[in-house]
Amino acid sequence: MKNKKFTLLKVFFGFLLPLISLVTMGTGYVLVWKFPDKFIPIIIACVCLYLAILIIFAILVSLGKSKIEEFAKKRPLLNATMYDKIYNAKEPALVCDENHKIIWANRFATSLPTKKILGTDVNDIFKYKFMDETMTKRQKEEDVTIEGEVYSVEETEIFASKERYYLLYLRNKTRQAELEELKKNKDKIVAYIVVDNLEALLQFEQENYRETAAKVERVIRSWAEGVNGILKEYEKDKYIFIFNMEDLEKFMADEFSILNKVRDIRLGSGSIPVTLSIGVAKKTDADLAEKEKLAHVALDMALQRGGDQAVVKLEEEVHFYGGLTNAVQKRTKVRARVVAGELENRIRRASNVIVMAHSYPDYDALGASIGIARFAKYHGAKVNIVTNFKNINAVKMIKDFEGIDEYRNVFVDASKGLDLVRTETLLIVVDVNNVNMFESKELAKMVDNIIIIDHHRQIAEFENEPIISYIETSASSASEIVAEIIEQALPMQTLLIQEANALYAGILLDTKNFQKNAGTKTHAAAMFLKDNGASYENVQDLFKTSIAEYKKNASFGEKIEIYRNCMAIAFNAHGKDLTDKILAAKVADSLLELEDVFASFTLVQIDNTVHISARSNGTINVQLILERFKGGGRFEAAGAQVKSTTVADVLVELKKAIDKYIDPEG
């Protein structure tokens, strides 16, 4: 401040004063020369003007000095660093005396909505309670409102010369409040809700549809209104639901109890429950549009898994709730025709096609693989099927293709399959969607273009997102799906008899000779295959059991544990672990024939991996139970593989999973 004062005086006396003197004298000389008769008045006027300029400048200097002295008085109240920081701060800062009068303000205090600042009581600008002797803190902070603007006031108590002063530093929080409100809006959750089987139930009781649909809608709307959410029906029996993020935690905590409430609704006097599928997405920093897309992906996953469940997509994981009823067969051939067209386009663009199923393939996996191979061959592709030649099922089925030129060198093992990978290779995976159960996980990682065709429930997101994912949980088998695709896309009589038999064997296996899960689509696919030469007589040798296997089966069934009064578990014979996975699956099927057994499980130790096969009579969802082991499958048939463990350890965990399924709250 002193330097500024010295510079101002130097400029005035060194430049301005001589200039003013020169201008005044020059003006007087010109006026006297022009008006000589008014010499005295002109001289008096010039002298008065000159004195007036000097007086005005003296006043300005005096005011500047007063202001400087005022600042100088306040500076000792603060240390030099704090003073400079507050003086140059971009937010208002005030210093008040003990009477709460403002005695100093920085330049940004002019932004406050008040005409006068210095000498004004703070409470005339905003309501504020100062610290007093009862307060132990030397600093405090609180929010105030000034003309609709929200400020955070940080108060610091200062003592100087035994006098108390208050430094008030104001931060405008209006923008922060707006950002918090925006964040609150960003914390909205988007969900899709579909009544997934009401239309299918129309075939049983059409006259009660409206009443049942209205009842379902009331239940859903009541649920949405309970959390002040927004529920809109965008299509018949389809809704979009927007709610707060904190409510998602409630829904997850009660495991989406809305599923149970809707499931209690029956169509008329029927015994089939109405079910919902829900897709929910939660992603930090995503806008509503992105959340809507993710919610739709979650809904698709719920439907692909058979419906009657909620799928919640979080940042890094997916959670599943519900899934207590079996899928209703309701698909049309339209989708099969669309998938067939897209499949053809992808095959024609590929350099070669590799077909693969799950490890230890059964006849359904092998039949579907062979059917896809025929589809690819028809469209001119070089195709190979990756399988395990140590598997008895593969050996039996491949034997039927010996001597057929088209199938020479088509079947290869996993190591050979890796050598066949090219930049434009297309991998088609059938009868499995869990990468942990692929015949070769390494092969799937190497190929960029993957297509999934399956009838098992999807248990998680794919590591390498497929270009086509055709998962129909209402289909009886993968062979049924493939047969339907071939029927829609290839000319009649394109299939070889051996190919038709392979697909037919797959359907027979998964339907237990049409006794389970066989819908109208299943019988239609079987008729198509029969028209192409398939017959039960041609495939019955595949299902025959050797004497050795029969003896193993008999011994395996000697020790069976009935758990929770309704589930049969078999895991050893004469103290030795069973090492035949295929036989274990057959045992699981046969255990369902026992009285009062609703579900069965067999455990097999192969090397350091325990394989679990599970079967159900349709009242218990064994797929949900085995999901706890990262397994997969269908409502009534599922499997899992647990590595680096023992049968005894898996048995303990299996019982815990069963307990959790029967008593979720326990």
Protein model, in words:
The chain is an alpha/beta fold and 666 residues long. Helix content is 42%, strand content 21%. The chain has 21 helices and 25 strands. The strands form five sheets. A six-stranded mixed β-sheet has the order 7-8-6-9-10-11. A six-stranded parallel β-sheet has the order 14-13-12-15-16-17. Helix 10 links the parallel strand 12 and strand 13. The protein is elongated and about 145 Å long.
Helix content: 40-55%
Spatial gap, N to C terminus: 77 Å
User: Mean pLDDT, as a whole number?
Assistant: 80
Multimeric state of these chains?
A: single chain
Strand count, sense and closure of the main sheet?
6 strands, mixed
Q: What overall geometry do the principal axes of the alpha carbons give?
A: elongated
The Rg value, from CA coordinates, equals 42 Å
Portion in beta strands: 15-25%
Main β-sheet, spatial strand arrangement: 7-8-6-9-10-11
Low-confidence stretches: 1-6, 67-72, 573-578
Can you count the beta strands?
A: 25
Please tally the helical runs, counting DSSP H or I stretches of 4 or more residues.
21
Indicate the structural class. Answer: alpha/beta
Write a concise keyword list for the protein shown above.
about 675 residues, alpha/beta, 21 helices, 25 strands, about 20% strand, elongated, disordered N terminus
Summed up, what is this model?
By secondary structure, the protein is of the alpha/beta class. The protein is built from 21 helices and 25 strands.
